[in-house]
Amino acid sequence: MPKRSKTISALRAVTRFYASIETTRNTVPPKRRHIKPPKAQGIHARMYRMEVKHGKKGQAGQHKRYQDREEHYAYIAREGRFEERGDLELSESGNMPEWAANDPTVFWDMADRYERANGRTYTEIVFSLPRELSAEQRVELAREFVQNVLGERHAYSWAIHAPLASDGLEQPHVHLMFSERVNDGIERDPEKFFSRYNAANPDQGGAGKDRYFNTKAFVREVREEWAITANHFMSRHGIEARIDHRSYKTLGIELEPTRKVGIAKYAGERVAMAETLAQNRAIAKRNGDRLLLNPAIGVHALSTLNSIFSRHDVEQFVFRNTDSADQYQQVLARMLNSKELLALAAPGKEGEWFTSAELRAVETRLVSRAERMAGIEVDPVAAATADQVRDARNLKPTQLSAFELLVGNRQLGVVNGAAGTGKSYVMGAAREAFEGEGFRVLGAALQGKTAEDMQRDAGISSRTLASFLTAIEKGRLTLDPQTVVFIDEAGMVGSRQLEKMLGHAETNGARVRLVGDAWQLHAVEAGDAFRAVSKAAGNAGALAGLTDIVRQKDDWQREASLALSKHDVSTALNAYIMHGSVFLPESLAAASDGLVAFALEARDAHPEDSQLLIAHTNAQRAGLNTAMRAALSARGELGADQPVSLVAEVDGERSVTVVPFAVGERVVFGRNDYGLDVRNGTLGVIEGIASRQLDGATLPEPGSLLSVRLDSGKHIVVDTGRYADLDYGYALTIHKSQGVTVDRAYLLATSSMDAELSYVGMTRHKKGLVIASGKDVFPDAKSLVRSLGKPVEKAFSAAHDVRPVIRDNPEYTHRQTFAKRREIAFEAAAERRRDRSPTGLRAELGATLAKVSAKDGPILASEQARIRQLTTALRRRDQVQPGVSYDGRAWDALVALSGETRARELVDAATARRERETAARYRAVERPLSIAGEFEQRLSKRAEAREAAIAVPAAPVEIGPPRLPAAQRDQFSLSVNRYVDSWNDLKRIQRSGIASPPKWTNELTENGRRLDAMWPRSHVHLLRAIESDRDTQRALALPSGKPRAEAMITGIERAAQREHERQHGRATDEQQHGLEREGRKPYQSMTPAERVARRDEFMTNVEQQAQSTDERDRLLREQGRGIDRGKKGYGRGD
């Protein structure tokens, strides 16, 4: 390369480097800072898109430049005509070797130059970002996902692009490219880095490659990893949107997935692009046609993962599955008018919320069925048998109560037990008692590993719940009154599965025993079923709680686990911090290495103890597995690596993955196989590896025979040509570890964890727990405690009331335009004015009126004023005439802004105010009017009578509600925070179905008294604000502190003001009417019919008075004077 070209390239590299630093510092370019993301409104699946691609030699450098939008068309079309798109938001790189640390482009150029001819220079993952995220949140989520997938081991570059989509909004997505070569810290020059790996002498060869990235298993796991990472991220940031990585086919949704139109389509073959776009439009149109015929398909799709969903979710779903604007409007109207769609009253949530009629019916049946079964009495286990089993076991007090419930006389029994309270021990005792009476005891669990643990620990023959239900439906398994079904970890079971299970049991008279923890991980499917069933069983007296922690050996660990069972993560973590069990090095990678070192140290000191490494994500689990395996191999505890071919068949296609295993390797099974007697999550150790042979001859098909000793002690032989779901088993994810008990556990904590995940991860051990994370994730222990204690809840549609959908709402049906409605109203008003106006009557009769004498002048002027007064009164009557049509949009907007309770209060207050004003106007002209005659007697009293008729009693002086003294505001803030903490704790316990401890109830009452002592009735006003004030309800979720206290004080002030206005309004009505002196019923206490009757009576009197006035005009004119003449005319004709 000429010297000048090298200089220009170097300057460009330096410019890119400093530009990347500046971009990273600002996070978002200034031109994009003004963009405000759409507001999330629902807890439902957003568009999911992920692709995994591999780059060939010669493409890496160009692809990096494509990410940076420097030579986009050169990468795609190999021509220079591609126009700059300008949609790059941010580009970052990491884990680079020292020689590429300042310019990541150098790394990808060297990969193109030195990688083997048939080698892969990079693997690319492209995934969409939810639109609900702000620009800063996009960057944060992208960084978190990259860290979860790659950690500190692989060089990577990623970029966020945000082009415009077909709907005119942004389409943010990430391109992540990374090297399969492991950056192991050994210094190598570029040529050596990309050379062949030397396993015997790593420092003499190139960097090793992780072959797992070439497998289909990686594609499946990284798709799931992205869904988990994104959903937890949005949950932490209060965004209720969710994504789902599963296909329509897996979810049972009868729609076609569209094909992705990639960047290559835009820059490459135009024909292919047009064909793909045409196919997608055709698929969208077919989906729209299906939804038009059967909108229940869409409602079912929206309710697959969550019980409730928002209107925004409906609109997004319809938009993705329609082709044109007309079809969109038609399908949206069909779905909104579908009988399958139910509108819900969801206090505390903005906008419209819905559920499906099918899921609502399922959850309603589930609760009703649970109430019935919990109340049905059956023959209990004989007292002698129960006593014999009880005496043979050392049961704690709460365990004894749970045992008595399980063997008692209820068809349904529920045990809600904290982690480590001995649920399996109690189930084993109940199983022994039932079998002693001749019952058949069966077990089921959502996960195969949980079913296996129940079978091992409690002695109950168990299988997965899906397999259990399938066997019943296909007639392979029958239930009867002599059958008892135990369901372990019932909190992870969704509404549909649990309702189906209880339905089979109730029909056949079988007994069901649900055992779980309402505070651990919720169901993946729709519905918080276990919590709802626990509440129903508690109302029927069929609920028992286990609170005596027996898993942990030390008292302080048991107290910490008890705190975790209440989601008091702060207390539990502080206890482990005080005992030196929390490790915070500089980085998450160092934390991972530290956990492995701790595990090896404990392995040497206590070789008989079982151990488990725990992480949240699959990528973190894989990193721990790799680190632990490398350490054991270096210590000589594993045999030589042997390549094992794992043969899998996916959608009819055969896939072979070669993974190194060794004798002594700890493995985990990832799929249920009843022939091998293994479940998803079963652990074992490889004791031998052999090739597949038949009659002494090695078979040509790929695969190996693994001799595995399971943790249960059973020996099996696994043919990897038929069973491919094997992985290293030194570490498990938190989800898979639920229900597992080991002697020592090691938890890698990350920001994606919440209170539920922390509860599960921190309660798997008996003897010891080490928690580690990095300061690059949590700068200090305080941030660690705050992040791991984030609350999380799952919705249940049956917990919300159904509100009627206003079908005459203009949004749902055809409506008249505003102009048309005003035209009709205007014509009607003009007609009423012509018919009822006294002035109009006077004009028509003017020609027939006679003249009057001059002495009648004052009386005539007075009567003219009276006519004008009557005209005004009639006009006002027309304005307040009832018959205003219902405007659904106004009501919906008011509910969305203020909540339904507050909205009704506002409407009632406005109605009462209008009625008071109307009554006051009527009283101004309500007194009787006399007919013409005796003018001389009335003249002296005219002015006084008119003033008395028009006058309205003055309203009392308003005195506002009592205010909080400024000097006591700080002390009151502390007290109100204590009250809200007590209120939250009590509500959390009540939602779980456990009886409220008297101590907590008394504490809440005492805190309320303290509030009233400083600010009278503030306790009552706070409760009203919590019940009906939307801002106060939102503030309940804030942590204890000044912002929450100020929000609560504001809510108290609003509630006090509303109470004052209601009381003041009643007093004003009584003062204004003053009807008690006349023996008449006050207007506000009348029924609607009585009010209408009184108004009709009054208007009849007004009409009669108008006619009498016209008659008076006629008489006066007959005397020779026109009523409209000026004062000069009053002397004429004398």
Automatic annotation (TrEMBL):
UniProt feature, compositional bias: Basic and acidic residues: 1056-1081, 1109-1134
Keyword set includes ATP-binding: yes
Residue numbers spanned by region Disordered: 1056-1134
UniProt entry tagged with the keyword Membrane: no
InterPro entries (UniProt xref): MobA_MobL (IPR005053), P-loop_NTPase (IPR027417)
Family matches, as SUPFAM superfamilies: P-loop containing nucleoside triphosphate hydrolases (SSF52540)
Domain MobA/MobL protein, first and last residues per copy: 89-267
Assigned keywords, A-Z: ATP-binding, Conjugation, Helicase, Hydrolase, Nucleotide-binding
A Gene Ontology molecular function term of the record: helicase activity
The family this protein is said to belong to: Belongs to the MobA/MobL family.
Protein's name according to its UniProt entry: Viral (Super1) RNA helicase family protein
Source organism of the structure: Burkholderia gladioli (Pseudomonas marginata)
